[in-house]
Give the backbone structure.
Amino acid sequence: MHLFVYIHVIIISFSVLDQVQSFLPQMAHANDELRRKMVTAPAHQFDIENLDNTTEKVIEMNVAIVELSDSDTDEEILTSEDDSESEDDHITGEVTIDNIKFPKQKGEKGKIEILDSKVNE
C-alpha cells in the first residue's frame, strides 16, 4: 500500500500584508480624530456635498455595487449578455446619449483622473 501526501503551499505577499497591517491603525486614528472634531465643529464643515474655497484636495469616487442572483451561473450570464448584445445591434434610429453603447474594454481597469484646477474657482 502506497500513501501519497499532497502538500499545497500558499505564498502570501508579506509586503502587502505588512502595508495593510500598518495602514489599519492609521485609519483608526484618523477616524478617532474625525469623531473628536465632529463634536466641536459645525456640521457644515463635514458636509461632503458643500465644498468651499478653502478645500484644497478633493477625491471623488463613483462606486457601483451590483448583486447577481444566485441562480445564474457564469455560462448563463455570458449567454444572456451575448443575446442582449445581438438584439441591441439591430436597433435603428437616432443615436442619443440614452441609447449609445460603447464596446466593452476587456482587461481595462478603472481610470483615475487627476484634476489640477481648484474646486469652485
Remarks:
- The chain is about 35% helix and 0% strand.
- Helices lie at 14-40, 74-88.
- The CA atoms of residues 70 and 77 lie 11 Å apart.
- Confidence is low (pLDDT under 50) at residues 80-85.
